[in-house]
Specification:
This protein has about 475 residues and is mainly β. The protein has helices spanning about 395-415, 420-425, 435-455, 460-470, and strands at about 1-5, 10-15, 20, 30-35, 40-45, 55, 65-70, 70-75, 80, 90-105, 105-120, 135-140, 145, 150-160, 165-170, 175-180, 185-190, 200-205, 210, 215-220, 230-235, 240, 245-250, 255-260, 265-275, 290-295, 310-320, 330, 330-340, 345-350, 355, 360-365, 370-375, 380, 385-390, 430. The longest helix has 25 residues, at about 435-455. It is rod-shaped.
Length: about 475
C-alpha cells in the first residue's frame, strides 16, 4: 500500500504483494520476451456525475498524472506480473487495479486499469530482466491491390509498432503519408501515379519506441524494422493496337488504323522508318493526326543498285498515341511495297489480225500474159499489240510505257511494210489473171511468215534499242538493260 497526497487529498493505490519492478515494463515470466503495451484507463461514473476517461499509452517511464473532477490521480510505473512461462505467442490479461479518491472521508472506487502483456517469441532468458524493444510485425495490409491513378486509405495491422512508428513504402510511382499509428494499427494515405507501372510496392514499419501523450519512454532513436510486406501495384493498362501488316504493289494504297485502350487518348501521330542504305524511301500519310490513315505505296531501291535492288521494299509504320499524364503507346506494323511485274510490258504484232488487203493493178502484155502494172490499193495491215503490266499509278509506268512505245515504233517501221511486199510481187506474171492473183496470195502468206521470223530474230536488237531510250528515265531501277542485250 502506498499513500500519496495531492492538494490535501489522500489518494491510495492498492497493489498486490508480489509486485515486480522491471525498468518501467512488464515481466511476462521466464522464457518470454515482453513488449510494452497499450493501457486504457477509464474513469467510472461517481455520484451520478458524468464519465471522464484518459488513454494512457505504454507502461513505464515516469509516473503519469491526470485529473478528473478537479482531483489528481497518479499511476506509478510499477506493475504487478504473473508468470506465464513457458508462454506461447499471444496476448495475456493481467490484474485489475482499483483506484480510489477521498471525498468527505468516504472511499469510492472510481477507476480500473487493465494491464496486458504481449509475448512476441518464446525462448531463453530468465524472468526479472529488462524488456526488449519489440520487432514490428505486419500481419495485414488492406487493401493490398493498388490501381494506378488511385488515392487509397490503406490500413496496416500488426504488432510491435509501439507509439511512434515510421511507415516506409517504396514503389515506382507510389507515394504515401501516415495519418496515424498505434502499436497495432497504422492508417496511411497512398497515392499511385497514373503512370505507375505494374509491380509491387514494399511496406515496412520501423519502431521508434514509446512517445505517447502520457507515458514517456524513448528508445534511443530508430528501432527495429519489420519484415517486408507487399502490395500489388496495378499499372493502368493503357496502350494501343495497330492494324495488321500491309502488302501493296508500287503505286497502290495502304490503310492503317490504331485503337487505343485503357484511357481516352489526347493525340495521334503517324511516322515511318526504313532500313539504312535504301534510295529515297517515302511514305505520305493522308491523315497524319488521326486514328486512321491511308498511305501511298512507294517502292525504293535497297540495295541502292540499278541492277540488284530487291523487288520488295519494307517500311515500319508507327502510330504514336499520347495519353494524359505524358504516357504514350507506339505500336508498329510493317508496310511491304512490291514491284510484282517481272515483265513491265510486251509489244508485238497482233498476229491473228495481220492481213493483206486491197489489190494491185494488172494487165495483159503483148504476149497475152497477165502482169502487175501498179501497186494500186495494196496494203499490208499489221496491227501492234502493246500490253503494259505495270500499274498506271506506279512510278515505273512512264518508264515502261516509253520502252514499249519504242518497240511499237520499231516494229511498225521495220517489218511487214507494204512496199517490201510489193517489191517481191511486182514482176509476177501468169497466163491468166486468176493464176496471177493466186501467185500474189501465196506470196502474201510467205511474206508475213518471213517478216515475223525476221522480227523475232531481231529481238535482241529491238530490246537494246528500246532500253537505250528507257534506261535514262527515272527511276533507274528494275527495268534496266544491265548488259542483258
Amino acid at each position: 500500500m502506498k499513500l500519496m497526497t495531492y492538494l490535501g487529498i489522500a489518494l491510495t493505490f492498492s497493489l498486490p504483494a508480489k509486485a515486480v519492478y522491471i525498468d518501467g515494463g512488464i515481466e511476462c515470466g521466464s522464457g518470454a520476451v515482453a513488449a510494452d503495451t497499450i493501457t486504457q484507463l477509464d474513469f467510472w461514473e461517481v455520484w451520478g456525475g458524468w464519465i471522464a476517461s484518459l488513454s494512457a499509452v505504454g507502461i513505464g517511464g515516469p509516473s503519469v498524472s491526470a485529473s478528473a473532477w478537479g482531483y489528481a490521480f497518479e499511476l506509478e510505473p510499477a506493475v504487478a506480473a504473473t508468470s506465464i512461462s513457458p508462454a506461447p505467442v499471444g496476448t495475456y490479461q493481467f490484474f485489475g487495479y482499483h483506484f480510489v479518491y477521498s471525498e468527505l472521508w468516504n472511499w469510492w472506487p472510481v477507476a480500473q486499469v487493465t494491464m496486458s502483456c504481449e509475448v512476441q517469441s518464446t525462448g531463453g532468458g530468465g524472468g526479472g530482466g529488462g524488456v526488449n524493444h519489440p520487432t514490428p510485425m505486419i500481419t495485414s495490409v488492406s487493401p493490398d491491390v493498388w490501381p494506378a491513378g488511385e488515392s487509397l486509405l490503406v490500413n496496416i495491422h500488426g504488432t510491435g509498432f509501439v507509439t511512434d512508428p515510421e511507415l516506409i513504402i517504396n514503389g515506382t510511382g507510389v507515394s504515401a503519408y501516415m495519418n496515424y499509428g498505434s502499436d497495432t494499427h497504422i492508417s496511411a494515405q497512398v497515392n499511385i501515379s497514373p503512370n505507375a507501372p505494374s509491380g509491387y510496392a514494399s511496406i515496412q514499419v520501423t519502431s521508434h519506441g514509446y512517445n505517447g501523450m502520457a507515458f514517456q519512454q524513448p528508445q534511443g532513436g530508430g528501432g527495429p524494422t519489420s519484415p517486408t510486406a507487399t502490395a500489388q501495384v496495378q499499372g493502368l493498362q493503357r496502350g494501343a493496337t495497330i492494324s495488321s501488316n500491309q502488302y501493296v504493289s508500287d503505286g497502290g494504297q495502304a490503310t492503317f488504323s490504331v485503337t487505343p485502350f485503357g484511357d481516352a487518348p489526347s493525340s495521334f501521330a503517324w511516322s515511318f522508318s526504313a532500313p539504312a542504305g535504301g534510295d529515297n524511301p517515302n511514305v505520305v500519310f493522308s491523315n497524319p493526326a488521326g486514328s486512321m490513315t491511308s498511305t501511298n505505296a512507294h517502292w525504293y531501291a535497297n540495295p541502292n543498285d540499278s541492277c540488284t535492288a530487291s523487288r520488295q521494299a519494307a517500311y515500319t509504320i508507327q502510330a504514336t498515341v499520347a495519353f494524359p499524364g505524358g504516357f504514350t503507346a507506339s505500336p508498329t506494323a510493317a508496310l511491304f511495297v512490291d514491284v510484282p511485274w517481272n515483265i513491265g510490258g510486251e509489244t508485238d504484232f497482233d498476229i491473228p489480225q495481220i492481213r493483206i488487203v486491197g489489190g494491185v493493178t494488172t494487165a495483159q502484155d503483148g504476149n497475152g500474159d497477165w502482169r502487175i502494172t501498179g501497186q494500186g490499193n495494196l496494203n499490208v495491215v499489221a496491227p501492234i499489240k502493246m500490253d503494259i503490266y505495270v500499274s498506271p499509278a506506279s512510278q515505273f509506268y512512264g518508264k515502261v510505257l516509253t520502252h514499249e512505245q519504242k518497240h511499237a515504233s520499231d516494229l511498225t517501221a521495220g517489218y511487214l511494210r507494204t512496199g517490201d511486199f510489193y517489191a517481191q510481187i511486182a514482176n509476177f506474171k501468169d497466163a491468166t489473171q486468176l493464176g496471177l492473183f493466186t501467185q500474189i496470195g501465196i506470196a502474201g502468206g510467205t511474206f508475213i511468215n518471213s517478216e515475223l521470223s525476221r522480227s523475232s530474230a531481231d529481238r535482241a536488237t529491238l530490246e537494246r534499242n528500246a532500253y537505250a531510250v528507257s534506261d535514262s528515265i527515272p527511276p533507274q531501277y528494275m527495268y534496266q538493260n544491265c548488259g542483258r542485250f
